[in-house]
Amino acid sequence: MKIKALTFAIAALLPVSSAWAAPTMADLEQRINDLQARLEHNEQAQQEQAKQVAQEQEQADNNPLFEFKGYARSGLLVNEDHQGATGTGPYMTAAGAIGAPVGRLGLEDTNYLEANFIHNRQLDNGANARFHLMLADGVETSNDWTAEESDLNVRQVYSELTGLPTFSGAFANATVWAGKRFDRDNFDIHFMDSDVVFLAGTGAGVYDVQLSDDWKANFSIYGRDFGSVESAGTDIENYIATMNNHIGQWQVMFSAMDSKDNDRVTAKAPASKRANHGLHALFAYHANSFYGINPGMSKTGMLIGSGLGAELKSIGSDGNLNDDAKAVRLFSFGTTDINETWSIAPAFMAEYSKDRILNHDKYKWATANVRLSQAFTENFEMVYEGSYQYMDLDNSQTSATGSYYKATIAPTLKLSTAAGFFDRPELRFAVSYVDWSSDLDNYAISTQTDPKPATMGNGGETLFALQMETWF
Amino acid sequence: MKIKALTFAIAALLPVSSAWAAPTMADLEQRINDLQARLEHNEQAQQEQAKQVAQEQEQADNNPLFEFKGYARSGLLVNEDHQGATGTGPYMTAAGAIGAPVGRLGLEDTNYLEANFIHNRQLDNGANARFHLMLADGVETSNDWTAEESDLNVRQVYSELTGLPTFSGAFANATVWAGKRFDRDNFDIHFMDSDVVFLAGTGAGVYDVQLSDDWKANFSIYGRDFGSVESAGTDIENYIATMNNHIGQWQVMFSAMDSKDNDRVTAKAPASKRANHGLHALFAYHANSFYGINPGMSKTGMLIGSGLGAELKSIGSDGNLNDDAKAVRLFSFGTTDINETWSIAPAFMAEYSKDRILNHDKYKWATANVRLSQAFTENFEMVYEGSYQYMDLDNSQTSATGSYYKATIAPTLKLSTAAGFFDRPELRFAVSYVDWSSDLDNYAISTQTDPKPATMGNGGETLFALQMETWF
Amino acid sequence: MKIKALTFAIAALLPVSSAWAAPTMADLEQRINDLQARLEHNEQAQQEQAKQVAQEQEQADNNPLFEFKGYARSGLLVNEDHQGATGTGPYMTAAGAIGAPVGRLGLEDTNYLEANFIHNRQLDNGANARFHLMLADGVETSNDWTAEESDLNVRQVYSELTGLPTFSGAFANATVWAGKRFDRDNFDIHFMDSDVVFLAGTGAGVYDVQLSDDWKANFSIYGRDFGSVESAGTDIENYIATMNNHIGQWQVMFSAMDSKDNDRVTAKAPASKRANHGLHALFAYHANSFYGINPGMSKTGMLIGSGLGAELKSIGSDGNLNDDAKAVRLFSFGTTDINETWSIAPAFMAEYSKDRILNHDKYKWATANVRLSQAFTENFEMVYEGSYQYMDLDNSQTSATGSYYKATIAPTLKLSTAAGFFDRPELRFAVSYVDWSSDLDNYAISTQTDPKPATMGNGGETLFALQMETWF
């Protein structure tokens, strides 16, 4: 490089044209030839460098060495007596104890965080190793120093291999993984803070095995802990084997589970007999439109399960299920823009379960939720949410039937209201009114198993919230 | 791109001049035209690329997608009997219990960490969303595995929106935020490890509302927790509304607070009556010079408060204040270079408070601290610190009056001694001698409320420290 | 920039050659001169930019502002009765309590993580400040939410200064540091999950003092905590002074330690008399070949220690050592490729110690381990491990002698099997058979000091593992 620079420098000092000798045509031609050669050289260098810069940028954008991703919400929730609200949240109703959510807007008091630190290692042959670490925390206190209350913990730590050159056929585009993780294909109804299906734990598996042109399947084994058997000096583990199929826009997911040591009776949860086994299935349709009637998205489906599979959302995570437990759940939700100003996101979820915790218990609930957004400017929108839940709960000894209602209005700031329901961060103020049937006030599903169960208390409360929510 | 490259390649193969046909003037001219066009094209490409590279660099420098920032100190503190020192630190005196600091150099035994993980999302229109997560920890143990002692916790988790295109007028340059955070405009006297004002908690607010050419104001609401009321099943929250004004170099900050359920008596803190309300004000002058007499910086001001506002530093964080509590605090500090070798940083803080925890208690203290640095080379300096504190403490039942003295000398390594008092990291060895009036040995402000209060013990101790301190 | 662009634009509009006026030779020459000047200018800009891009890339590669580094393993361990395995791991034998490891493959049930967040600050003069933070966690549970079990903690937090321009002579290439850290020159036998030497704690030191051409030395002081003396209100600290020499391929490391307050008797560990002092030495040879007979690597050496130095691996970390404790340890391990398919990694470690915890106790153990890998494709290999440990244990009151055996076979996926034993991540399935002499079943070294000591239980077990292991 130095030699070349020197050459140019010397060349610049030489007389290229002078008064004392008129140039000949040949001289000029030679100079043109020289210039052309240099220009070509320079053009090449320029193009190579542009390519290199673009490659580096693409690498940095698409597959950076390091990624920081997260979800967080944090804020204040104040009741009408300007006291901190307690006991509120999307699982605040009596049916919340068995996983029945209501609309979340304006009800959340927790400061919750998921921080993901991701390392990618990519070989030139395209093989990629991805390491994923998630730290998470959730506290209610508004204070900044939370060492006492801290729940900071490692929720995910796993590695994935993708694009292995020796994988071929059905496995050509497969991703293999092992460690502790949330399953990649979990999905949620954000407005209710409820996953439709939440498979998580420690294990190993493979994604995207191509069984036919239109059929991809995932296979996995996850382990979970239910606690420990003191007499045996061993943990109670639950092993979940799952096959998850994506056939066009349909999803069909089967899970079977086995927990050898779970058929015990603990003081805290006197199941008639706790389940050792479980079966679980999910059928879902992922539409690219709002129920075929408008642009947008919608997802609809059903979950069924028995035994340990009767916990329909968090597959295999509940060891207190009865041997005979049976449950079925329906869900549907979607989002669409009505016009330039208004967007709507209805959501529905309902479940029927029986012999769930004790023989002869029976639980029915259904939640309907609508979130609406009304854009006023590029950065400001009003968000509205109405939520209703019907409950018919019978824990085999006492029962209660009734309804829960919530209405929320939330002035909201965001970077771009046009970007839709799922653009974050949102900074919001929210006012909510919540009420419910008085029959439900003192009812608790766990009355038989928990000496001091939490109940809904009295309804008819106004709540004020200041909150940020973000993901990236 | 490929077609163009091919064209050039073919062009390079064509005879541009040959022996069998002399070029005409027109040929030459045509070739010059061609070269010129190509050169212009190349110049443009070069300039565009330079612009792109510069933009990417600027983006990476000024507003990177991810930022890692932190503060940490870690080291050993050994006493003259080569034992681990305990009970030392900037709040080691009897008055430390009510927030009276002394000079920190050579007294700190804790391994303290603040690690910030920041995500920026910037739109092309300049609107920016900033997510801020802070993890913090503080332990005394010198061991590496600290799971038992760990205080690791989430101290901040918030989102900010800046540069919203629809904000105009006084709000044109405003930043809005919500979540859990340290207020942006907190500032400290580093040498005493004491914030002048430390407003923190969970809430929402807006910065930099331009009320006139020279007047910016911040508005915020912060919530804090004082604990829980078991009988009521509710948390005791304190809500703090603040207006913080920057008028030229003056700062005027008003805070009012309201904690509805705090007027209770706990076994641990029998206040005459705990306060439900509080008022707090800060007046400060931020000078761009060392008290107008030398280049450097200095800050001087006063804080006053009553009720819950009588905790003057950590606004609204102390629920154990008496209904009648009153407090006033003065502070001043600055830094300047005396010459190429010596720099000086004097600091002063004093407080008078009464009816603070119990009726008729009365506390006076004043701390004077001087830190000096003497640069020997680009990387080595001697740092000296002298600290004095006067205390006149009356907890309404017993009283003590006396003084605390400390002298420290600290050989210090750093990247650049010329960069001043606030350049970090510093790796330091420190020897300190601390002593105090024997009257203070067994005195504790909390004698009435804490059955086994910590006391200062005997003075006259030499301490040896090995420590790193950094921020970035 | 804009003016220049405009100039070019205008120039492009001007007629550079036309039909109505034939150009002269001088015209052409002038145009060639112009073109040449512009080309030279452009060439320079191109070269400068290439240099700049290369510099930025080099900075990003070699000394990035931020680095994320880590180690993690996570997976399931299931026994032949499809229960979660407990009590397994490289320290599962009776001698594990005094630090005797066996081969780790297929035995680990923990989800263990080390996440390092590193900040580099580099001055133009080459001086560099490096901040290092390590978070670590280790839990057994397979669940994702581990707040209850979490051991998340800060294991390292330190700063280093390198390349200080005022350092010269022997210190010219020295690195100085202070804070909490793992010593830089610790090294391990990965296959046994055992450091050969693990020096860690809080302190300060200097690396790479060049004592002669072939001799580099490190000096450091580390503090560690053994617990607290309640009567004295003081922590029991142990201070370790170390000189660590690298002379060619030889390493000679001396450590002396002093723990003034450790000569006490606690209920949990009735040492005849606990040690106040300790001496420790390591002699090691780091070979660039597999014992001189094949390409690869190998390390061989000896450790000896007395008093507090009798904990040979984790220097100065065990406060329960007897005043008369003496120990000696031998180790050797290496890795080499046998051919394109097979690689081998033998490892050996043995220790003799006496008067270790109580007077007249005596412990001998020796472990031999072989790991073999057999590459089948670029991404798949079979890994085999055989492990044997001999134990002759006498805790001064009861004794046991016997052997432990393990055989493991592990089908393994990785990015590149050709990259050798230390390339990660590895995703592995493993089947192991472990057995031991029945004499050892109920033996525990700590029988005299721990009322309910853990024992090996019965041998003859088959274990199944699904695991990822990574570092980067």
From TrEMBL, chains A, B, C:
Keyword RNA-binding: no
Cellular component GO terms, alphabetical: cell outer membrane; pore complex
Domain of life of the native organism: Bacteria
Keywords associated with the record: Cell outer membrane, Coiled coil, Ion transport, Membrane, Porin, Signal, Transmembrane, Transmembrane beta strand, Transport
Signal peptide extent: 1-21
Membrane topology: Multi-pass membrane protein
UniProt feature coiled coil, ranges: 25-63
KW Transport (keyword) present: yes
Protein name in the entry: Sucrose porin
Provenance organism: Vibrio palustris
